[in-house]
Design a protein that fits this description.
The protein has helices spanning 33-36, 39-44, 46-62, 67-81, 96-100, 156-165, 184-190, 217-230; strands spanning 2-7, 85-90, 106-107, 110-117, 123-125, 142-146, 168-172, 194-199, 211-214. By secondary structure, the chain is of the alpha/beta class. The longest helix has 17 residues, at 46-62. The chain starts with a strand and ends with a helix.
């Protein structure tokens, strides 16, 4: 059995990381992610965009994975033990899945703890604040290694291959507002794959799901994983 899980900001909400929409979005008092997560914003005011990501990076470093992240790591190990497979694709740029023990996490929107050189394209680990004077070894300027609105998401070939092979599609903590991620459920449905939504409240594409469970991820994801591994 091949399980495809797509996670969004909601799975990290109870770890104290901001969500973009819906309950908890008020966390972004000082910054509007929709305005700042764009190449245009970075070109216009790189220092402000660096501040936005520096604040999130420091918040992430102080945060911890929650029971939902831990449950998905348990699911990966449990499925592998019985010869089944989990593909975990996340829209999130945090490393909480990895810190909870998940491996091979596909970060389609990039990673907050990495920086990319605008000149040579090199990707560096990054746990410190970035600024307009953060040079790469090649002396080029560094930007967050993050996919902004209008930029191409990463690993799309790998993602569509995993979608093609999936027997079960599960979306966790995502509003279904951002494409192409929001379209994955339609790809899965078109192949007759069973689709399940785990969220605090119905997402924009809730109607596309066969099975819908609502509640905080830290509660509904562990119970769903227990069911999956018990089955
Ligand atoms: C692209 C990184 C093309 C930055 C992000 C149709 C097709 C293709 C593109 C488009 C299209 N229509 C529009 C577009 C353009 C755009 C788009 O989708 N715009 C939207 C606003 C309409 N898409 C793009 O620009 C994408 N690029 O398509 O390029 C292309 C292709 C090839 C070649 C060249 C170009 C790129 C989008 C990526 C943008 N970057 N993140 C950063 O993080 O700063 S997206 C950003 O939104 C985050 O990654 C976030 O995760 C993501 C999606 O949001 P969600 O994860 O769903 O989170 P959200 O806050 O929305 O919702 C939270 C959910 O959690 C809610 O449902 C809530 O109920 C739930 N929740 C809250 N608390 C809990 C909870 N659930 C459980 N428990 C809780 N406790
Ligand atoms: Zn460089």
């Amino acid at each position: 059995m091949n399980v495809f899980v797509l996670t969004g900001a909601g799975i990290s909400a109870e770890s104290g990381l901001g969500v973009f929409r819906g309950p908890g979005a008020a966390l972004w008092k000082r910054y509007d992610p929709m305005q700042l997560a764009t190449p245009e914003a970075f070109a216009r005011d790189p220092a402000l965009v660096h501040d936005f990501y520096n604040a999130r990076r420091n918040n992430l470093i102080a945060a911890s994975p929650n029971a939902a992240h831990v449950a998905l790591a348990r699911l990966e190990a449990g499925l592998a033990q019985r010869g089944d497979d989990l593909t975990l694709v996340t829209q999130n740029i945090d490393d909480l899945h990895e810190r909870a023990g998940s491996t091979g996490v596909i970060h389609m929107h990039g990673e907050l703890l990495k920086a990319r050189c605008a000149s040579c394209g090199a990707v560096h680990d990054c746990r410190d604040d970035l600024s307009t004077s953060s040079p790469c070894d090649c002396a080029g300027a560094l930007r967050p290694h993050v996919v902004w609105f209008g930029e191409a998401p990463l690993y799309m070939d790998e993602i569509y291959a995993a979608l093609e092979a999936a027997d079960l599609f599960v979306a966790i903590g995502t509003s279904g507002a951002v494409y192409p991620a929001a379209g994955f459920v339609r790809e899965a449905r078109a192949k007759g794959v069973r689709c399940c939504e785990l969220n605090l409240e119905p997402s924009e594409n809730a109607a596309e799901f066969d099975d819908r469970r609502y509640g905080p991820a830290s509660e509904i994801v562990p119970s769903w994983v227990e069911e999956m591994l018990g089955s």
